[in-house]
Amino acid sequence: MKVIFEHQSNPSGAGFLVKEYIQTHFTSPYHFHDLYELILIKKSYGKLYAAKKIINFQDNDVYLFGPDFAHCFYNEKSFIEKGEKAHAIAIFFKKDFLGEGFFENAKYVKVNELLGKSTSGLHLTKTTPVIQELFSNITKQRGLDELITFLTLLSQISQLPQSSLGVINETQFVTKFTNKDSARLEPVINYVMENFREEVDSKTAAKLAHLSESAFCRYFKGRMEQTFSQFVNHVRVAHATNLLLTEEWDILRIYFESGFKNLSYFNRQFRHFTGQSPKEYRRSFYSKSENLVMDSRED
């Protein structure tokens, strides 16, 4: 988190900027900027730290972040160790890039509503083949063709059913970080993201932040609006939700693979962050006909 405000400029003056990222892993720190950001994760997986939420991201996910929405994509160790390239296509733009009040016209009410909701972060839970193709096409285009493709993208997304547009943060979050805070907390966040499956302790985190343990705990809670242990549990629960939906493992293995050492504690923390037990969470996404391996114990 070395940079909190990240400036994006477009030398062409077209009012929007298309960037394609192909790298060993995503390297952008926890940041925000004064532009909207529409991004397709073409290939990669890991954790998205978005304002106060931590969620999993994977291939073909699409997100729309409004101005000042703080976020960062962290790759899983397992992805980096595979030696594959992380691939993303991002479009940065201002709301008035076509002129003041353009999207406030009644003809574009759906796009205007979409942009309004993006201030809390949006995740397209179902990405259509058309949307994926438009993202791929825009990287090869320039001028009018590029503009038409971008407007078509906004139109396609704005017409998706509400069930396909997940709001990441129900309430807006205003970051309290300064650049000094970012430099101090970046190694701490990386430490958690890279080691949450193992023992993670505040003493090690405090050393990384160059603070005493007691001072670090106060500092972390003041900046992150949650305790260090709550943040660690949040990361672990986010990982568990992904395993519940992608692996046919029993609950015992999932809580262990997510870094928890106690089943009862895992169940309590899982319900705290999701509002459901692990079993309820899994069942809500799968029909009864699917043959998943389920834990026979009571939560």
From TrEMBL:
Keyword check for tRNA processing: no
Keyword entries, A-Z: DNA-binding, Transcription, Transcription regulation
Residue span(s) of domain HTH araC/xylS-type: 186-284
Keyword Mitochondrion (UniProt): no
Coiled coil regions, renumbered to chain: none
InterPro entries, A to Z: Homeodomain-like_sf, HTH_AraC
Entries under PROSITE patterns matching the protein: HTH_ARAC_FAMILY_2
Pfam families: HTH_18
Name under which the protein is recorded: AraC family transcriptional regulator
Lineage of origin: Bacteria, Pseudomonadati, Bacteroidota, Chitinophagia, Chitinophagales
